[in-house]
What we know:
This protein is mainly α. The chain has one domain (15-111): Orthogonal Bundle (Arc Repressor Mutant, subunit A), CATH 1.10.10.10. It contains 4 helices and 3 strands, in the order αβααββα. The chain has a 3-stranded antiparallel sheet with strand order 1-3-2. The N and C termini lie far apart (38 Å).
Amino acid sequence: MPNDFTDPFDQPLTPAVFHILLALTDGEKHGYAIMKDVESQTSGRIKMGPGTLYGSIRRLLAARLIEETDERPAPELDDERRRYYRITAQGQSIVASETKRLVRAVKTAQEKGILVYGEGTLS
């Protein structure tokens, strides 16, 4: 399987991959917590199903942008079937590069008059 993540400027990240990496920037999470974080980040605009989530997680693990962690909460607060994930240094670099790319795209849209703040176009 080709590695889609070797060059952060090669291709933009998919929304699912971008938001999964973003969800993990503030700490380790299990799959369901990632799904809920993405839904919250996007005000419900992105609702990932298990197929999208775990397919993306598999690719991110293979690319070493995230890793599974052995650290777990106290047993009474946890379900032993859950797997916890954290972002790697390379994953941090990739999500930062993608964020910069998106910022440049927004600036270009503003310069072209496509996106104007204060006119309700950002909701």
